[in-house]
Design goal:
Layout (H helix, E strand, L loop, with lengths): L11 H23 L3 H6 L4 E5 L5 H9 L4 E4 L2 H8 L2 H6 L4 E4 L8 H5 L4 E7 L2 H14 L5 E6 L16 H11 L3 E7 L14 H17 L7 E3 L6 H7 L3 E4 L1 H4 L15 H6 L10 H12 L4
Parallel strand pairs: 1-2, 1-8, 2-3, 3-4, 4-5, 5-6, 6-7
Helix pairs in contact: 1-3, 1-10, 1-13, 8-9
Length: 301
């Protein structure tokens, strides 16, 4: 049975709020970026914002793209296929970069890799999947290596996908040595939700950082050469502060997700959600602020 998306349609006012919500996220992102210590800044010199549009209509993608956002993430194969092949998006968003950030079964690999403007698969969690991605990408002859990340289950939760931290070096090295069509650029985690920062740094983020250290130590790699994809709507600022180079933010920009058809859902104002009910200390023009962020951390490119 085909999954039903976008059952609760967004209103025109919600589309208009996306640009403002995106600006608030960028302002919060810059503040977190500026608060990092020297070691973190040296080891994680770049930062990318992936706007997650899971269950959201294409009109929201268009609106965010108009405000300078280029990287978008999808969790579901069918939704990625539909949006990436949409004629209106293909015409209006010629520089869009799609990230697949959900669990990927090997029998769905071809569908994902055939998606136009696919930029990265962030959820390589097994040798079998890595090999299938490599084989399929070679057959498609795209003329470039496909960027991928190794997914690590840092929280140890059974419902989460990813290799264990003890296996991260083996999978990373397998992709690096045996998958010539793939460019393994980093490691990714979801981690446990709702960590209380008053109790200290998020241990799942610390585990991912330790995995990067283990990979670098074992294979003689520089830390800045390995990206860290961690941090979502509820914790992206903390993730940036400790070294994330790739944050995945959805509901804070686009509002609450829509899963169930024919059910009215009271959605929180995206701008209110993005600002945590506090107005930013400064308001910048959208184009000038976006240019500043892009120059600082490659956020929207």
């Amino acid at each position: 049975m085909q999954r039903v998306f976008n059952a609760v349609m967004a209103t025109e006012s919600e589309f208009g709020q996306i640009g403002r919500a995106l600006q608030v996220v960028l302002q919060r992102t810059e503040a977190a970026w500026q608060s990092r210590n020297e070691n973190v800044s040296r080891e994680s010199p770049n930062l990318r914002l992936v706007a997650v549009t899971k269950t959201k209509p294409k009109e929201m993608v268009l609106e965010a793209y108009k405000h300078g956002q280029k990287n978008f993430g999808e969790n579901y194969v069918q939704e990625l296929v539909e949006k990436s092949n949409d004629e209106e998006l293909l015409k209006a968003c010629n520089e869009i970069r799609w990230h697949f950030i959900g669990h990927l079964q090997t029998n769905k690999v071809k569908k994902v890799l055939e998606s136009p403007n696919l930029y990265m698969v962030e959820t390589v969690d097994s040798l079998k999947l890595a090999n299938e991605l490599n084989k399929t990408w070679q057959k498609l002859a795209k003329g470039r290596r496909l960027k991928v990340m190794v997914q690590i289950n840092t929280s140890g939760e059974e419902q989460k996908h990813g290799v264990s931290p003890s296996e991260c070096c083996d999978l990373y090295d397998h992709v690096r040595q045996n998958c010539s069509a793939l460019d393994v650029v980093g490691i990714m985690t979801i981690g446990a939700f709702d960590h209380d920062l008053s109790k200290g740094p998020n241990p799942d983020f610390q585990t991912l950082i330790q995995c990067r250290e283990a990979i670098c130590s074992k294979f003689g790699l520089a830390k800045e050469a390995i990206e860290l994809s961690m941090g979502m709507s509820n914790d992206f600022e903390h993730a940036i502060e400790v070294g994330s180079t790739n944050i995945r933010v959805g509901s804070t920009i686009f509002g609450a997700r829509n899963y169930k058809p024919k059910v009215e859902v009271a959605q929180q104002d995206p701008v209110e959600k993005a600002s945590k009910e506090q107005a930013p200390s400064e308001r910048h023009g959208e184009s000038s602020h976006q240019d500043h962020i892009s120059g600082m951390a490659n956020l929207a490119l």
